[in-house]
Amino acid sequence: IIKVINHDSHIYQPLPPIAAELEDANSTMTPAELLCNGAGIPGEAGYRMTVMTLGKYPAFPLEAYRTACRRAVDTADPEKVMFLIKQAQSHVPDLPGHFFGDIAVYAYDDYPHMARKIIDRCTPQQAAAVPTRLLLQAVGYEDIEFACGLVKKGVRAGDLAECIIDSCYQNTLESLPSELLRLGMQVSLEDYGAMHSCLVYNFTEAAAILLERGMDFDACKRWAAEKGWEWPQNDTCTQIETMWAGMRTQSPGPTMQL
Which of 60, 97, 238, 253 is most enclosed, with most CB atoms within 10 A? Predict the structure, then answer.
């Protein structure tokens, strides 16, 4: 049972004109077309049509439902967007885990508050499937709170870790890479581009975290040489070199024989 409630918690009463319009459209429009049409109509009329369509038809194709969500975003109606988001799993067969992240990415540029609401209701599995570019977008907009929230939620850096670190530098967010890493941002131990960026930009703490996680510093050097990239000569590189040398020479202490 779908209830339609406005911000004042009053249950909407059926509107005959809208119901009649929906019935008239049945003869010429598919359920998917009805949903996309209603989702793209601003205001209360579009919201009601969206609810009535979902109440009448049990299932929709993935692409049609994605289009409806995007059209709802374009109407700047967070209530309608979140209604569609909440109904997605029950109306789209085999809904992919990245669906919610896709809509959040679409909404974030113009309506970041909608993106935050979508991410807030993601399960851990859905958060892990959120496209990495949402994290890059947040850093690009200097939205530190959202970027940190995404990492806490489980959104991964993926193959954009180097770009995220570069964006931190470009936006003078020098402490953010280490903060994101401390919060659990996952970076592949073979993502030497991420380490190289940390060295170039003097992000000492972030580079140290990558080293502590197990990144091979010698392999990073070889990778940079193969690419023809200049190896940085700065304080961070010196400190990380020293740290790496210490890690390489460490050995287990003597075992006491009883």
Answer: 60
Which range has the worst mean pLDDT, 6-20, 30-44, 81-95, 107-121?
Answer: 6-20
> What is the C-alpha separation between 75 and 77, in angstroms, rounded?
5
**φ, ψ of residue 5 in degrees (nearest 5):** -125, 135
pLDDT reading at 5 higher than 80? no
Token pair 């890479």: residue:
177
Q: What residue has token string 């009883």?
A: 258
Determine the distance from the C-alpha atom of residue 139 to the mean position of all C-alpha atoms in its chain, rounded to a whole number: 12
The answer to whether 97 and 125 are in contact (CB under 8 A) is: yes
SS (H, E, C) 221-257: HHHHHHHCCCCCCCHHHHHHHHHHHHHHHCCCCCCCC
CA 162/CA 33 separation, integer angstroms = 41
Q: Are 187 and 156 in contact (CB under 8 A)?
A: no
Q: What is the pLDDT of residue 28?
A: 84
Whole-angstrom distance, CA of residue 85 vs CA of residue 120 = 12
pLDDT of 15 above 70? no
C-alpha–C-alpha distance, residues 136 and 142, integer Å: 10
The angle subtended at Cα 101 by Cα 40 and Cα 30, nearest 5°, is 35
